Amino acid sequence: MMIDMTLFQQIKEGFHDSLYIWAKEVRNVFHDEGVLIFCILVPLGYPLLYSWIYNNEVVRDVPVAIVDMDHTSLSREYIRKLDASPDVKVACYCNSLDEAQDLVGRQKVRGVVYLPSDFSKNINRGERSFVSVYCDMSLMLAYKAIYQASQAVASLMSAQIQIERSVDMTNRDNEVTVEPIRQEQVNIFNSTIGYGNAIIPPVLMLILHQTLLLGIGLAAGTARENNRFADLVPISRHYNGIFRIVVGKAMCYFMIYMVMGTYLGLCVPRFFSYTAMNHAEYFFPFLIPYILATTFFGMTVSGLVRHRENILLLVIFTSVPLLFLSGVSWPVSNMPAFWKYFSYLFPSTFGLRGYTTLSSMGGTLQDIEFEYQALWIQVFVYIFLTCLVYRRQIALTHAHNRERLDQIKEMLKMSEKNKQQ
Asked: How many Å apart are CA 159 and CA 65, to the nearest integer?
């Protein structure tokens, strides 16, 4: 009976200590300006700014320069149709490519359309004519707009020329002549073919990942700076067990980021009318392991943090690499095997892929089974590593306590000797 009571008291004490650590961590989050900014203000405000910037989805009226060396009615028709397209705007006419190149260099235009002097002559002879398109490749969206508009105008005029030269008797015959095999383009998921719909969903999950790491790292750096011996675990009877420390700290960040994750994953895309086909019944079961894995990953990494500034250097520069490693902006199939498996170390890899499938493609948990299982594996792996980190920190704290006691004993001995003398 005594053994059962002792076990019950240990469980009760551990539970109370976990609640004490949780309450202290919550107070630290709201009292530490740096942690408050990264854990509350950045997740609330930064996604709105990012989504608002890309809310236009596609670029329109990209300025181009025209170099028309033909000066015929056919070349002018090409230019009129190009200017009438929604993607391109004819900003100026140039007499040479050098003049147009200078405008591109000064960012007055984003591209150049060059019509050669034999443009209409070759067409009238029944020969192939060429239109050269030069684009500023520093902005891929501008390149896409100029190239597609030029290609569409060229296809339209080619079809008109084919009809004029055909001997067909009916409009139906003309349609078959121009387009013997009809193709229809149906844009699934990203129906607008917009940049925002493609990039915003994974970026939202990356913001969740990075701000959580920064918040945990800043809190760890503050704990070390406030500790006399620069230890991660303070000298307190409540911090006397590995599991209670890990659970208390993790519970704080889990509760905060469940709210932040709901806001980022369910609310922000709908604020800006992005494609959002995820449902709460699939989203929350996915969000729980993602936040837990990221939390324990951050607590493991926090063992390397000696000062508050260290986590900024350690985390911020990884944002763009993690976006690429996730496979949402570059196909995983084209990645080298090393980087593919290296990306499995980070919860963001599976979090970004899973959320993109749920939100942009209307997937279910069965569709992200691999990512879902990988996140739960990371939860158990990183909670084990976190316990190892805090076990070492508790051992260091005890060693410093013994060192401090030894120093006190030495001081007492010295004082007694002085009294005897």
From this structure: 25
